[in-house]
Every structure is written in C-alpha cells, then in structure tokens.
Amino acid sequence: MPKLQSQEKPRFYWQLLFSLLMFVYMYLPILVLAFFSFNESRFSASWEGFTLKWYQQLFRDQRILSALQNSLIVAASAVGIAAVIGTLMAVGLARYRFRGKSLYRGVSYLPLIIPDIAIAVATLVFLAVVQIRLSIWTIVAAHVVFCLAYVGLVVSTRLADLNPHLEEAALDLGATPRQAFLKVLLPELMPGIISGCLLAFVLSLDDFLIASFTAGSGATTLPMEIFSRIRTGVKPDINALSVILMLISGVVFFLAESIRYQSAEKRLKQ
C-alpha cells in the first residue's frame, strides 16, 4: 500500500496577529501626523498636495526657536547636574554601608513612581516658601529631581554587573581611593552614565507639566509653546515640529541602546 503522507495544517499565530494590531494601534496615529505634515492645506481634513513649506516656516519661527533654546538649556543643565550627583549616589549606595541605607535608596528612586503633578506642586510650594523667583533655572532645579532618579537607576544597574573586586585590586596595587574611582570604576560606568543621561535628556526635553508649574516670565519651553498653540487647533507647522521631535527622540534612543548593547557585548567577551 502507498505510504500516506501527513499534511500539516496551516498554523495560525495569534501572537503575531496581536503584535501587528498592537503596532498598528501605537504607530498609525504617528504615521498620519507625519503624512499631514507635508500637506499643502492648513487643515488636515483633506489632502491638497505635497509641500515642505511648513518645515521651512517652522525654522523661521522665532518663538519656536526661542522655546527650543530654553528647552535645550534646561535639559542640558539638569542632565549635567544629575549625571554627577546620580553617579555618586549610585556608587555610594552600592559600595558603602550606613544606617538607613534601604530607606535612602527607596526615597532616591521615588520620583520614578510619583506623579508629575505631585512633583510640580511640591516644587512650586517649596520655591514659594523659600521665596525664590521663578525663572528658567527653577525649571532646571525641578527637572534635576527626576533626572537624578533615572541616571542613578541606570548607573546602579550597570554597577550590579561589575566585578566588585576591581577597585580592591587597584587599591592593593597602590592606587588611592580617588585614583581607583577615576581610572578604574568611572570608565566601566561610563556606558551606563551616558545611557542614563540620554534617557533623562529626552524626558526633560519632553516635559510639560513640571515646567509649566515652575517656569517664570519669559521662560517658555518647547512643550509649553506647543500646548499654547494647539488650543485653537493643530496646525501643519506643529505637525512638522512633532515629526522632528520624534525623530530626535528616536535617534537618542538608538544611541542609548547602541551604547548599552556594545557594553553588554564587551562584558561577554571579557
């Protein structure tokens, strides 16, 4: 008798369908926004032709450029301060023992779970009590709070993967504690520091709520400027600005992931 060949039934992957639906739900609005940023019409109801004039108009808008400058100053300043303090905080929590360490660790990372509105109100009340005039630097001070937590978390994760005996070996070879930190530990932590700074930079650049509570007169950041304009409807130049911001965020995320991946590959080869 001829041997019967079993035919496999086509398999339907529900996981694949669910993933596709999830990505469509997440990214279809972004694709629509990017599509209409090239629309000739000032309104998004109909397509009237391809144009780049909204991008050209965007780069001639002095209010947008001034708000972007303020956002970059705030993000760079907050991340710079958080990089130093967050790294020292992570190293101190990982390498030293002291009374109340667990409590201090929990309090240090609270900004990760506290709602932004709570941080904004608390910062505003504190600034009013100490009678500090609101300005662009009060936004920086408020942003340092959550940037510090993100940098500290990423650096502490990197610390957990390092050999704790590296510093001890350096000290045994005659290095001072300062030299052991600067020449042994800090280079190993640098990928984590850079990744944490890039993440904190994007979060600071996109923040609206905390900045709007702590901004002084004339200290308008880019998200605040965008919010003030969309009250009367979303214009094509705002669509173009949103596309540019998403591209910048994507590039920063790609850099952070590349640094993390290269660091992980380096550790596996050692």
TrEMBL record:
Sequence ranges assigned to domain ABC transmembrane type-1 in this UniProt record: 68-256
Main localization (coarse): membrane
UniProt entry keywords in alphabetical sequence: Cell membrane, Membrane, Transmembrane, Transmembrane helix, Transport
Subcellular location: Cell membrane
Bilayer-spanning residue ranges: 12-38, 72-94, 106-130, 136-159, 180-202, 238-256
CDD domains in alphabetical order: TM_PBP2 (cd06261)
Top-level taxon of the source organism: Bacteria
The protein's name in its UniProt record: ABC transporter permease
Pfam families linked to this entry: BPD_transp_1
PANTHER family xrefs: PUTRESCINE TRANSPORT SYSTEM PERMEASE PROTEIN POTI
Source organism: Floridaenema evergladense BLCC-F167
